[in-house]
Amino acid sequence: MSEETNVVRRKPVSPAKLDAVDRRLLGLLAEDATLSYADLGHNLRLSPPAVHERVKRLRHDGIIKGTVAVLNGAKIGRPLLTFVHVDTTSWAVTRHLLALKELPEVEEIHTVTGESAMLLKVRTKDTQALEDLLERIHSIEGFKGTRSYIALSTYLERGPSPVLSA
Amino acid sequence: MSEETNVVRRKPVSPAKLDAVDRRLLGLLAEDATLSYADLGHNLRLSPPAVHERVKRLRHDGIIKGTVAVLNGAKIGRPLLTFVHVDTTSWAVTRHLLALKELPEVEEIHTVTGESAMLLKVRTKDTQALEDLLERIHSIEGFKGTRSYIALSTYLERGPSPVLSA
DNA sequence: CATGAAAAGTACACCTT
DNA sequence: AAGGTGTACTTTTCATG
Questions:
Q1: Which residue range or ranges hold the HTH asnC-type domain (chains A, B) (predicted)?
Q2: If exposure means fewest CB atoms within 10 Å of the residue's CB, which of A105, B46, B84, B160 is most exposed?
Q3: B26 lies in some domain
Q4: Smallest Cβ distance to A15: which of B13, B75, B108?
Q5: B14 in a domain, yes or no?
Q6: Residue A36: CB less than 7 A from any atom in strand D
Q7: What does pLDDT average to over chain B?
Q8: Quick check: A75 and B62 CB within 8 A?
Q9: Does residue B103 sit in the same domain as residue B52?
Q10: B70 vs A33: CA distance, rounded Å
Q11: pLDDT at position A119 over 80
């Protein structure tokens, strides 16, 4: 709901203490949040209220940031996915980043290490719309050049996984 | 639920016919899928069953791919977000892509245009875990080199928007 | 964890355009 | 014929003991 998308995570976010059941629960909900507490409980060998209690805690603690519908980019008229590396002349571009948030084509905005200083994930109707977007970016003060990587096929696209690494 | 994450979208997905109410509904659900049909109906000036009917159709048509819980990467122990460009020696690496899907650190896998042939979005515990992952990638046959861009700050991170561009 | 009240989801018949 | 409404019924949510 609110735009609390990790905007500047200067404050070191300490990882929450999660037990194995929490992580399994998170894994299930990250795949399908329409499961009822009864279903989840059956899977986790917990009673529905027990599941409810855990979910409430995970939400309250911000471990679950929200529950959203995932849309099919192609079917809503945005079949072209592109990653755009943006070279900036100064670091005082933060103000202009807010402008990009207003564009529905822009899905992600990160500042990154490496040659380019900013990385955008954008989804457009076609190459023309991408070109229009790049023109707008170039017209913004402080944005020098861009390098675009158009996605040919997407093999995986999901959110953060709670599964512990081997 | 199922792994139908746009795996090879060779078949041209024709955009669905969506009216203005559909798009507004999708916009609301893409932000917060916990809203009740009553709430949505109030917002759209529709009765709850009418909303339900539309949502059912949008789901059935695959425009809504699913409903998921969005997790806080930092709080589940993955504070380090990195985009990895992978150079491949041959195009016959598709088989090996499946192996990467099994790694919980890997969130996205795309084949892209440009110098690098593949682009990964990965979220790790720390730089050590990232290094381990890069080592694994290098050890895979057909993967030549990598260039990593570590995210310093994330200003926006959302899914495809149904809003029509100006 | 079990119980139960309140709320939401869902099916159906009817009505309006 | 399509799509919306209102009612009734079922399931889920969620607070209490």
A1: 18-79
A2: B46
A3: yes
A4: B75
A5: no
A6: yes
A7: 90
A8: yes
A9: no
A10: 9
A11: yes
CATH number at residue B114: 3.30.70.920
Q: How far is A135 from chain B (nearest CA, A)?
A: 15
pTM: 0.91
Could you read off the pLDDT of A38-71 as tens digits, one per residue? 999 999 999 999 999 999 999 999 999 999 999 9
- Asked if B110 and B140 sit in the same domain, the reply is yes
Backbone phi, psi, residue A9, to 5°: -95, 50
What sign results for the dihedral spanned by CA atoms B31, B35, B40, B42? negative
Q: Based on the fold, state whether residues B94 and B144 are members of the same structural domain.
A: yes
Total domains in the fold of chain B: 2
Of A84 and B9, the structure prediction assigns the larger pLDDT to A84
Domain that holds residue A53: 20-60
Nearest chain A residue to B107 by CA: give it: A158
A156 is a domain residue: no
Task: Tell me the two tokens of residue B31.
Answer: 């932000």
Q: Which of B9, B70, B151 sits opposite A110 (nearest CB)?
A: B151
Tell me, yes or no, whether A102 and A46 share the same domain: no
Chain A contact set for B67 (CB, 8 A): 32-34, 67-70
Neighbours of A32 (CB within 10 A): 15
In a shared domain, residues B34 and B86: no
Q: What is the mean pLDDT of residues A14-31?
A: 93
pLDDT in tens, B112-161: 998 879 999 999 999 999 999 999 998 887 888 999 999 999 999 999 99
- Measuring from the CA of residue B38 to each C1', which nucleotide is nearest? C8
In a domain, B134, yes or no: yes
Nearest-Å Rg of the Cα atoms of chain A is 19
- Give the CATH number, domain containing residue B30: 1.10.10.10
- Token digits for B39? 């709430």
For the stretch A135-163, pLDDT in tens is 999 988 788 899 999 999 999 999 999 99
